[in-house]
Every structure is written in structure tokens, then in C-alpha cells.
Amino acid sequence: MPLFLTQQDVDFWKENGYVKFRLYSDKEMDAICKEYDYLFKLKENSGMEAAWIGDDMIKATKGKEVSVQSVHNLQMHSATFTKILTDDRLLDALQDVMGTEHIALHHTKAHNKPPKRGAPYLMHQDYLYFPYKNDSMVAVFLNIDNSDPENGGLCVYPGSHKLGPLPDHGYKADGKDADFHWADPAKYPIEGATPIVAKRGEVVIFSYLLLHGSYVNNSERTRRMFLAQIMAADDEPLKDLHKSPAQGLMLRGFNPKRDATMEKRFHH
Ligand SMILES: O=C(O)CCC(=O)C(=O)O
Fold this sequence. Notes:
- The chain is of the alpha+beta class.
- The chain has helices spanning 7-16, 26-43, 55-61, 79-85, 88-98; strands at 18-22, 69-72, 103-113, 121-124, 138-143, 154-156, 194-195, 202-207, 212-214, 223-232, 250-252.
- The strands form two sheets. Strands 1, 2, 3, 5, 8, 10 and 11 form a seven-stranded antiparallel β-sheet that branches. A four-stranded antiparallel β-sheet has the order 4-9-6-7.
- The protein is globular.
- Bound molecules: 2-oxoglutaric acid.
- 2-oxoglutaric acid is lined by residues 111, 121, 126, 154, 212, 214, 225.
- This is phytanoyl-CoA dioxygenase.
- It is an enzyme of class 1 (oxidoreductase).
- It comes from Megalurothrips usitatus.
């Protein structure tokens, strides 16, 4: 028996590589929103720009100037976000889809898409940013606002997690190593994806192999989100990429592989 989701949710997850459910009430969201806005206002600076660049992005935005502000590692800024990560309802839902009770943090971030000019994200798999041996990684995407295709909401290719890792068509500033990763937009255009219409307080959990992206925000509304990447505690990175504070923090269960020597006590 699942702990938090329904059996139907778990079956949907297996087939489609994602699942959407309500986690927070309006009252809980009011408190989260307040802290989120405070953080973005307090830290406001030009280094928070996180829109992707390159020819495929110019095509997707039809040359329009777009923007999205990002803060990473929110648990290092405010306990509100640490509390989300340790929320037992969320961990029950994660256990339902991940099939393990040994659950660890990879990293967190937030994307704040402004009205009228919010940047899209081309269809991509998160796998290329941080590949792991057992592909246990999932994203927890918390909708801070009601979101839909008009205000830059999320979209997915259902079932694409079964394709395995796809070739990288990302942007390469030096012509060699991709700075941003995405799938071939000719094969997987945003227009061909399934929109996810979500209410504030709803969460979408999706596999890091699921092709996902999000639309331009052409509306009068902001589109804010908080995202946590979560992995099975015993999974192992295939590349030395994307190290971040509190990575490996145990959210539930036990990590049998964690080193316990004095020599490596400062490693993370
Ligand atoms: O902010 C968004 O809409 C999408 C972000 C995303 O897909 C990602 O960071 O992997």
C-alpha cells in the first residue's frame, strides 16, 4: 500500500515518469510564498539571471528578450525550505515513487519567471546535468503559483523516461562542452509536449530521465517554482558534476555508503 499517494498515482508514475498531487494548503502556501518573495527581494542582483542562451533559444523565443531569476540551495538561506525537504507527507510520496526509504538530497533551486518576458526551458532530461548509476534521481517541482502554458508552466513528454539518456543538443560556448543541455528541438519541440496545469501548492514529481521543459511566460502573471532534486541514498554519481551544499543530506533512512574516516571528514 502506498504511504501518501494512491495506487492509481503510483501506476501513473510508472507509466508516465511523473505524477502530480496536492501537498500544501493555501494557508501553508501563504507562509512559503512570503519567505520566497522575501528571499528574492533581499538577494536581488544581476547574477541571478538563469535564462538559457543559444540559437535554439532564439528560435523558441522568436528573438524576444526573456529572463528568469534563480536562487540555488535555498535550504542554506531559509529554514522554510529545509522544512519542505523534511516534510513527512512529501517523503512518504517520494518513498511511494522511488521504492526506497533511504532518501537523500541532491540540491534545490527556485525559478522566478517574470510576467510578459519569462524565459522558456527547452525540452531536456536532467540526467545530463548530474548522471547517476541507478537513475534514482527525481525532481520535486513545487508550484508556488497556479501555472499553465500562458504563464510559463511546465510541460512533459509522458513516458519519455523509458527512452534512456538522449543525445545532447545543448549550447556550447566553446564549441566543445555544453554549458546547457537539451534534446533536439526538431525532434522534441515544446509545442509537441503535454502541458501540466497546476495549482499553487501542487507538486509534480518527475524522473530525471523524463523530457520536460516550460513555456515562455507571455501572461500578466508571475510563475514561481521551488525545485528539489532527490536521490536514493545508495546511488552513485557517474561524473564529478554539480556539487552543492548539503548534498547527500539524509532526509529519511540511512546511508550505508557514507565514508566515516577522519581523512575525508571535510569532503562533501
Ligand atoms: O523553471 C522551469 O520552468 C523549468 C526548470 C527545469 O526544467 C529545470 O530546471 O530542469
